[in-house]
Fold each of these.
Amino acid sequence: MIKNIVFDLGNVLISYEPQKFISKYVKKENQEKFFDIVFGSEEWQKLDRGILEYKEVIEIFSKKLPEEKEAIERLFCNNIQEVLFPIDKNLKLLPVLKENKYNLYILSNFHRDSFLEIEKKCNFQKFFTGKIVSYSVKLLKPEKDIYLKLLNTYNLIPEETLFIDDTLGNIIAANELNIKTIHLKEKENLDKELINLGIKI
């Protein structure tokens, strides 16, 4: 019986859309390069892991792509909020699930400054019993230790725990620890996927 529901954030509760920012603020001829240098970079992963800060990556990325320095500064000075869009339909499930006595948790790869801002914006503290966010534990999904950190910190039994993520590799890692999962391929289908598993919403 499922007692605990664990949410990834990106494309589960928060839509992650870097292309919206790029098409709006980056010159057309630099758009592909911008995506690779910024969003597809090792530095982006290091931000998730909490071992780099925004002021550092502004400098790094501006050296690699000086012609887009203004866009780079805009992205990080706004804590990447212009690529993050709350999914209202899915966020509305949180109070219902909490009311139905499920314990709710966050397990997500996220930069510190952007997480703190989105947490406040979406009032996460009202709904979630706990959270393991990559920057604060210096671990990333799908590393086994980040899942163990969640289970051990909150004394969760894997067989009573459901984890929802949009990335297959993260789902496979959770399954290996006997955590039940939903691989959310379409973010608008979260309610249906929960119902299919017998979750009361």
Amino acid sequence: MSRAKYQVLIIPYYIENANVKYCIFHRSDMKVWQFIAGGGEDEDITVLVSAKREAYEEANINMDKDYIQLNTLTSIPTNCFKEARKIWGEECLVIPEYSFAVLLDDTKLKISDEHTKYEWVDYNEAMKRLRYDSNKTALWELDNRIKLGVNN
């Protein structure tokens, strides 16, 4: 598979007794907490397919789950990716990152080697631990959608 010119971000969340928990992941190659993130593949039919594939690869989340596409859209500098300019050309300086959320029935996940661990935390704890502004913005949007009852 070859790398498409976009990134996806996926926020798994769980609601129990009106308490919302968000799953954050500790990266194995960096000392950062983030949501599931990964690149699209040219073979992916849609951005949503990329999000479902990444969530399955990184956390074994069933691809049949319903995903919410968030309005949060971020640009990621290509210098964050190895050999990006070689793959996409010198003139490709940024790529879009599309954000999604997926409501889970269970808090048990099987994570890939990309992460050392995962934790289910509330909104405030997630905001404290997340490193990237794109993750924080997408979380803010999702949390407010849940509070407003706007989940689609």
Amino acid sequence: METPAVLAEPVRPPGIRPLPVLGGHLALDFANTVDDPLGPERWDHVADYGALLYWSVQRGIASPALQALAEARPGEADAVVRRAAELRDALNATFGAVVDGAPVEEAWELLRPFCVEALARMRLAADVHPEWDQPVLDAPLWPVADAAHQLLRSADDLHRLKRCAGCPWLFLDRSRNGSRRWCAMGDCGTHEKIRRYVTKRAQRRTG
């Protein structure tokens, strides 16, 4: 089987934008792979194996060679996509609980199996850099799960963890004064400013 040198970008419907990468951390970026999650243009950017692999290759955590393997084993590839959705749900539940100051034990029970598998599959390169065996269709999930485990162990980064004030996306606030409120000022921040302006104008008219 031939391995594509470069993966083709997944086709998106008209009006669906390329997925912004705004979380500031691999695990959070994967948690944020559903764009406009509460809006009319909701789109899952890793809804099939080709899209999952494209996202992973763009982030430097998987090899394009997995595309040929996925085509040869479509049933297994579909199962990995379902596991990817479960991982994303576990990430949002776990880090959402951290942001909310809620108990994390139940969410951690969902995330822990992914972290355990990632550690079991990990090997260290000569420069003591973690690597994962390829080609295995599950391979894109392991660096994400390991990144989540590392984030949970980093008190400094957890202190910076926030949820966007306009949508459910998670991010690390690395601003100098820790005042970041939005996943992106040009998206949720702008929408909130417009909403406030319209509300105030309506109040002036009825006041």
